[in-house]
Amino acid sequence: MSKVLDDYNQKWFKELSPSSFFNESDLESTVQTYLSKHLINCFVLRGKIRVINNETNKVNIPDLIIVDKEYKEWYVVEVELSNHDLSHIKSQIDTFTKGIYDKSHANYLFQQNTDELDLDELNKMILRFPPKVFVIVNDFNCDWIDVFNQYDCKVGIFQIYYDRDQNRAYRFQGYFPLMKHDFGTCKFIPGLPTMIALNEKDFLDGIGIQPNEEIIAQYNGKISKWKRIDDRNSVYLECLSNTIPLDPLNKRYVITYDDIENTFHFIKA
Questions:
Q1: What confidence tens digit (pLDDT) does each residue in 160-200 have?
Q2: SS3 of 258, please?
Q3: Is 113 exposed, middle or buried (CB count within 10 Å of its CB: 0-12, 13-18, 19+)?
Q4: What distance in Å separates the CA atoms of residue 103 and residue 106, rounded to the nearest whole number?
Q5: Is the pTM of this model over 0.85?
Q6: C-alpha triplet 183, 189, 191: angle, nearest 5°
Q7: Coil, helix or strand for 83?
Q8: What's residue 90's pLDDT?
Q9: I want to staple 169 with a disulfide (CB 3.0 to 4.6 A). Which of 74, 102, 161, 205 is the partner?
Q10: Hey, where are the domains in the chain?
Q11: Fold category of 3-174 in CATH
Q12: Is the pLDDT confidence value at 96 over 90?
């Protein structure tokens, strides 16, 4: 099992064995608390409502629902223990991907936070945008990769650590929804002089840049136009300007975003 060091307090934290986790409901509760604390631009809500598969009529019930506070996207979340059967996981993902969502789901979410949620906006969002499916597991299971890719399912790994005094620390790997990052890192692709690969695949997602959308970036006072290109699990930027302003001899760059000017900036790494 892995360990992490709290360098400030000089304490070691040891990972809780995935096989020893209490039960799935405990994991759900811990994950909801964690997401609510860190996804400040979202509502993290219970998802205990029936979803009917539009093709098979099979019914499944998600664990959580994440709603963007601007009502531009939302996630159906399933929290799973890594020792669950693959057929069980696939059945749920299939239903949530092909699910029928209507006003009853909007009302169910609204009743959880009537002070902050807007019922009209919830209804519009649910009818306009299909949800993304997001699976959170407590350990990585290689057997599930093909299923996740088949349904374009987002995946996060949530791990819990304890120190000798039973204090907790958490580690989240993989996809993290609607998290706005201040910067990302990127690098040139060998043999493709007009393409750079983003190391943080969710950097553009957090800013709201969708696949095939164009952005404006600055480097050394020069302005250039770039287009987001997605290929399976990789995200790239393709330069659309006649001349690439970046120096190809410097293979790595930091990319930042200025939300006031709505402009990106490249910096040598």
A1: 888 888 888 888 888 877 655 567 889 888 888 889 999 88
A2: strand
A3: exposed
A4: 5
A5: no
A6: 160
A7: coil
A8: 94
A9: 161
A10: 3-174, 183-268
A11: Trna Endonuclease; Chain: A, domain 1 (3.40.1350)
A12: yes
